[in-house]
């Protein structure tokens, strides 16, 4: 009786392992379904192949490697991270970091404009008209040389 229960447990474990592997393998015919969910002929054959490989004692990694060698990396839902795919995996982070750096630089530049800071310091201080005129002459920024519009506004035609 115990050996019967052990056989049932072993079969259930193998089925669970096969289903887990099948959920992580893309159907080559459907493309959008796993082979566990697909009813295509190739999916049925791949599920049988996975069960045969499990019965022969192969590990999950060995089975995934065999499937990748036979059908290519696109058959796996979770492609591996290597030097070829590093740019693809890291490009969103690099883009977000670059945008955050530009934003921080612009904010820093806006808040540290010396002329604006000096004019803000002078406000509220009682000065004679002559002193005010001299301070404004010194602290007013020189006129800009050319358009100061950002590339985005120039591109939009504003």
Account of the 3D structure:
By secondary structure, the protein is mostly helical. 66% of the residues lie in helices and 0% in strands. It has 7 helices and no strands. It has helices at 2-23, 41-55, 60-71, 83-111, 114-122, 129-139, 151-156. Helix 1 crosses helix 2 (41-55). It is rod-shaped and about 105 Å long. The mean pLDDT is 80.
Q: Structural class per helix/strand content?
A: mainly alpha
Termini, distance in Å?
84 Å
**What percent of residues are in strands?**
under 5%
Low-confidence stretches: none
Number of strands: 0
Number of helices: 7
How can the largest sheet be summarized?
none
Indicate the radius of gyration in whole angstroms.
34 Å
Question: SSE order in H/E notation?
Answer: HHHHHHH
- Sum up the overall morphology in one term: rod-shaped
Average pLDDT:
80
What is the helical fraction, as a range of percent?
55-70%
Summarize the structure.
It is built from seven helices and no strands. The protein has helices at 2-23, 41-55, 60-71, 83-111, 114-122, 129-139, 151-156.
SSE order and pairing:
Blueprint: H1 2-23, H2 41-55, H3 60-71, H4 83-111, H5 114-122, H6 129-139, H7 151-156
Helix pairs in contact: 1-2
Features:
mainly alpha; rod-shaped; single chain; 7 helices; 158 residues
């Amino acid at each position: 009786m115990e050996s019967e229960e052990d056989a049932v447990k072993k079969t259930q474990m193998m089925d669970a392992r096969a289903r887990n592997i099948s959920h992580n393998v893309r159907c080559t015919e459907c493309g959008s379904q796993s082979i566990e969910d697909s009813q295509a002929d190739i999916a049925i054959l791949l599920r049988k192949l996975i069960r045969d490989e499990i019965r022969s004692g192969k590990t999950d990694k060995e089975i995934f490697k065999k499937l990748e060698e036979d059908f290519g990396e696109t058959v796996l839902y979770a492609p591996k991270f290597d030097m070829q795919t590093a740019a693809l995996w890291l490009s969103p982070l690099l883009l977000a970091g670059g945008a955050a750096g530009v934003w921080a630089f612009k904010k820093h530049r806006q808040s540290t404009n010396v002329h604006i800071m000096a004019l803000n310091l002078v406000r509220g201080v009682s000065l004679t008209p002559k002193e005010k005129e001299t301070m404004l002459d010194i602290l007013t920024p020189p006129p800009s040389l050319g358009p100061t519009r950002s590339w985005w506004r120039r591109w939009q035609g504003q």
